[in-house]
Amino acid sequence: MVDWSTIESDLTTLLEGAGYELVELQKTTGRGAHVTILADKLDAPGTINLDECAELSFLVSQYLDQVDPIRGTYRLMVSSPGVDRPLRKPAHYERAVDKTVRVRHTAGEGPVTIQGRLAAVSEDGITIDVDGVQHAVPWQCVERAHLVYDWGD
User: Fold this and answer.
1) Count of domains in the chain?
2) Is the pLDDT of residue 153 over 70?
């Protein structure tokens, strides 16, 4: 059985050593297996380029060849987080204050998705302003969150 949490931890360390942050690790096993790495620069988030993704792809590929987490063939993709970057760590949320976010959470009755301005980040959770109404969402209730890019008019 493959321990993906160890692989994610190893990849985090590997990328940080090269000056990058592992934003997200996505994987699918079985037929059509793939591993997707979303990475960004540690010192300048939002500025990773295609050549840097190619370099990281080589680095990650070497590591995955050693641990061999997926039986058979799979595709590896290393990419920037994009304009709708996922928010996974408190630092991601802190950089997103005053920006529009979409958050799926379980605070209240069942899973709900809301979109609004990220008003605050604290050790307890986040506050999202939706048309002037403040929604406090504890960290343990956040299922998924990402930025929503404003394309303008």
Assistant:
1) 2
2) no
